[in-house]
Amino acid sequence: xxxxxxxxxxxxxxxxxxxxxxxxxxxxxxxxxxxxxxxxxxxxxxxxxxxxxxxxxxxxxxxxxxxxxxxxxxxxxxxxxxxxxxxxxxxxxxxxxxxxxxxxxxxxxxxxxxxxxxxxxxxxxxxxxxxxxxxxxxxxxxxxxxxxxxxxxxxxxxxxxxxxxxxxxxxxxxxxxxxxxxxxxxxxxxxxxxxxxxxxxxxxxxxxxxxxxxxxxxxxxxxxxxxxxxxxxxxxxxxxxxxxxxxxxxxxxxxxxxxxxxxxxxxxxxxxxxxxxxxxxxxxxxx
Length: 287
Prior knowledge:
By secondary structure, this protein is mainly α. It has 13 helices and no strands. The chain has one domain (3-286). The chain has helices at 3-26, 32-53, 65-86, 92-99, 102-114, 120-138, 142-147, 149-171, 178-200, 210-237, 240-246, 249-262, 268-286.
């Protein structure tokens, strides 16, 4: 166990967790696709510069463009677009709990695509995670859940897209240095989202306050740059299982930060949903 590895893993997890309430606030000033897409493009450029500074090549191997585009569209594009849209209907804490279900969907999708047997532990993990989501979204009654249905579907779509991209990455390995791969994935995933956002949403720079600009800078520098650099640094120094379990800190930070920064409710229902969902994810990772 590398102490530095644990430190950079904590930085990545906390940075990604804080991004949920920051995204939610930014939606009061700028639309989701434009803000997320543009931040991703700038973040990808910064990651590319960091990769070059570390003497990593940005060259994409011959014959890999199609799979790189497919995985980037699913893993990054799907997550960025759907999670941004989900926050139009959901609170930041609800989106954080739904988003952390990714490892469960990875375990489920690995069955038909990779031939990895859906073991009893994985089936239990899926059931437990769905129970946690039901506790979170069903606590305010049926009518409230129906009103949030578009957000629920968008958040789950984002999680499933990321999980599918993860499984396909294992099925079609991308032989590239990690930071270079992250730069290409973020850039290719966010470019179409930014284009669609600018065309459909027509955002105005004048609408951004100083807090809005700070949120955009955070999403670009911290979410897309610092957190990715720290994540790959953690993977270099820690076992993959340890790094994966460490990301369970993301929804915890997201829920607590949403309560502190946005005054979102933090009662027994929210805590129970978080604990149950995290339990399901932990079982999936152990399986």
